[in-house]
Amino acid sequence: MTTMKWSTTTPKGFDWAGVIWLFVFFWYFSGITQLLIQLTGITGFAGFRQGFVISGIWLAPMLMFPQKTRIMAAVIGVILWACSMASLGYFFIYQQEFSQSVIFIMFESNISEAGEYMTQYFAWWIVLAFIAHTAFAIFLWTRLRPVYMPRARAYAVAAALLIGIIGYPLAKQLARHDDTASALEAFESRIEPAVPWQMIVAYHRYTQQLDGMQDMLTSSSNIAPLKNLKDQQANLPTTLVLVIGESTNRGRMHLYGYPRQTTPNLDAMKDQLQVFSNVITPRPYTIEALQQVLTFADEENPDLYLKTPSIVSVMKQAGYKTFWITNQQTMTKRNTMLTTFSEQADEQVYLNNNRNQNARQYDGDVIAPFTKALTDAAPRKLIVVHLLGTHMAYQYRFPEEFAKFSGRDGVPADIDDSKLEFYNSYDNAVLYNDFVVSSLIKEYGKADPKGFLLYLSDHGEDVYDSPGRNTLGRNENKPTIPMYTVPFIAYASPKWKQTHDWNFESIHDRPYTSSNLIHTWAQLAGLSFDELDTTKSLVSLDFKARPRMIGDPYAPKGLSDFAHMEKAASQPGTMPEVVQK
């Protein structure tokens, strides 16, 4: 009986073909996405080049232990394949490179939420593409064979690969930077285009930021209090409410001019509301947006959320008892960036501890604990209510009795049938959100407090609203107007109006970004302190219009002026049929 052995040489000697097959196999998992990006002209050549070079490190173990080539290649290949599926899938959906900000969002999402996104974006051709991607990877693996050379030479070549690909670039960055942390960060950026380093680097940076948030929570008492804080309402009974919505684009609200009747309750009480029509969010993601919305941070100073008080902390310093009621899924109060803000409050109510964001978990559940908080004996209260709003999957955001929109009546003609269900479900979610927000306002009014209620959404959502009708969801790398346009609505109790000027009709259309909310909130609440900038307050006589910057403040050239996008959208032939008022 004969035993088959791998050929160790080519007729000319060294098995160069074997080395090429090995390299192509390992490069394929990073290279396929980078190649598609190059072919579509999405970005420059740097990512392709770096992914190509970094893939060469896997040749080192293959040369050192050739007898285990296929086993090691299979194990490494499975890991690379899993990571490549994520980046390839993101490219299929968004035609963009898998960015670090997206990975941050992945790590902040639970399994149920990820499943909802998969359901929302599912397309049969993506499955076929994944099958083809996997099949070709398997084919490449079948081509692999051991590449033999003298042991000493193999170890020398392996060492040269590791030094050339890892050691030298790392040493170069260490020499260029004054501190190790900056050098490592630069080196991480170099290896990031290749899998699995893409995930590893992002997770490392994610844990760093999460640790920073935890440090902020545990040491919040050490954050310097506001200087010279004064309160016009000092010692007076006051109840203030901040309602934070989720994923609601004001362009789909009838209150803001949308043709469909998606806000009948808010419409009915419009005369009691101050409806601001030109407010945007700085970022289209919850965590990143709220880091600015709830603190002194903004697009030019994004790290201030780690160094300065939040709205909750400010109100506690002013003597308010603080409540945080959330219907966001928290899974037993897991310590995330989002719950860090909630844990600053005196009392928290976590409603959504389900493993699945199913039809039984609606925002209406916030009404009962909200009513209870209103009756708390504390004379001065801040109540924050964080809704699940119109977050995808939209069909889970409203009960059956709110499924009003199902046909094509009121739907733009260029929305094809494959998109109709998403379009209608979003409008139904907006309709239910109208019921919840208006119910909170009504409950607040029944309590006869002295104070005001402010509602805004963390960010918007594009549900086939922008030109071309091809965008669903949010993508900071491919921004559209509906991702940033948010409702901003204020209601004041009769007692509050007796002692406060509450007529803002002349300034409803002021261009404003919610990243400056803390300045508006402070002025509405009658607070003053050294850090207050009244030029950033929407309701101030000192208000100064300035560029409303959007984008990733941590990315090179990541910021842009929202006005540029508005100007482009206003060009003839580019506006969608349903637009923001």
Uncertain runs are 1-11, 331-335, 354-359, 573-581
| CATH class division of the largest domain | Alpha Beta
What's the CATH topology label of the largest domain? Alkaline Phosphatase, subunit A
Helix content: 40-55%
Write down the domain tally: 2
Describe this entry's structure for a reader.
The chain is of the alpha/beta class and 581 residues long. The protein folds into two domains: 16-210, no CATH class; 238-569, Alkaline Phosphatase, subunit A, CATH 3.40.720.10. 43% of the residues lie in helices and 11% in strands. It has 19 helices and 15 strands. The chain has helices at 16-39, 46-54, 59-64, 69-94, 100-108, 111-121, 124-142, 151-176, 180-191, 197-218, 264-268, 286-293, 311-317, 337-342, 367-374, 417-446, 494-499, 517-525, 562-569, and strands at 230-231, 238-245, 273-276, 279-280, 321-329, 347-352, 380-386, 452-457, 462-463, 472-473, 488-492, 512-513, 527-528, 549-551, 559-561. A seven-stranded mixed sheet has the order 3-11-8-2-7-5-6. Strand 9 (462-463) and strand 10 (472-473) form a beta hairpin. The protein starts with 15 loop residues before the first helix and ends in a 12-residue tail after the last helix. The relative contact order is 0.12. The model is unreliable at 1-11, 331-335, 354-359 and 573-581 (pLDDT under 50).
